[in-house]
Specification:
By secondary structure, the protein is of the alpha/beta class. The chain has 2 domains: 141 residues, Response regulator (Rossmann fold), CATH 3.40.50; 65 residues. Helix content is 52%, strand content 12%. The protein has 10 helices and 6 strands. The chain has a 6-stranded parallel β-sheet with strand order 2-1-3-4-5-6, sandwiched between helices. It is elongated and about 70 Å long.
Length: 221
């Protein structure tokens, strides 16, 4: 099992819960901090001493307070930590449950596990650490299906048309005009809205702009 773990978490009760899990797993050397800047500093110091951390457990969102921070959140912390220590194992422990975000962390930043803060998350956290220690990746069961749906989602020609129109600056309310002029069915505003809502729900987005950006990034439009 891991011997040296760093916990970056700004909610004290969550930190206590995570620390207890560490004790249950027999991990005696743990450090935790409320700030991303401090987390990166601790990683640098550990490397300089020749005693690097085995695992970083971090949240994604950190609330702002009186102390100004240079690192905005967990995603940036992970990226910077990886530049300092490429082999550092990373476990994200967050309430975020958007499939696109979670999938991106695995693909773009090479995280090793993601546990969503929810009921029974202590059990999930323990399972994640045991799995990661064995050199495998871990994803909470409730997120696996969502990510699978995202990766297997098939865009129809209708989907691509309305997303392309949004990308080109056409207002959502004006999309039916284009559809009707080009004899594309369905062409009603309600149909456009329903299809956009389906795509956003499956892909884990709340705004059309996020959907458009995703489709551009992945070459869908």
């Amino acid at each position: 099992m891991f011997t040296k773990v760093l916990i970056a978490e700004d909610h004290e009760m969550t930190s206590i819960s995570v620390t207890k899990t560490m004790r249950d797993l027999g991990i005696s050397e743990t450090e935790y901090t409320y700030y991303c800047d401090d987390a990166l500093m601790l990683i640098k110091k550990a490397i300089a001493k020749g005693q690097p951390f085995d695992l970083l457990i971090t949240d994604l969102s950190f609330e702002e307070d009186h102390r100004k921070q240079r690192i905005s959140g967990g995603t940036e912390l992970i990226a910077l930590a990886k530049t300092l220590q490429a082999d550092l194992k990373v476990l994200v422990f967050s309430a975020e449950n958007k499939p696109a975000l979670v999938d991106g962390l695995f693909k773009d930043l090479g995280i090793d596990g993601y546990v969503r803060k929810a009921r029974h998350d202590a059990k999930d956290l323990r399972a994640a650490m045991e799995t990661i220690f064995l050199g495998k990746t871990y994803l909470s069961a409730d997120l696996k299906q969502s990510v699978k749906e995202k990766n297997t989602f098939e865009f129809t020609s209708f989907d691509i048309t309305i997303i392309s129109l949004l990308s080109g600056g056409t207002l959502q309310k004006n999309i039916p005009d284009y559809l009707q002029a080009n004899h594309i069915k369905p062409s009603g505003l309600s149909s456009v809205e329903k299809r956009l809502n389906v795509m956003k729900e499956v892909l884990g987005f709340s705004k059309n702009e996020q959907l458009v950006a995703y489709c551009k990034d992945f070459g869908i439009i």
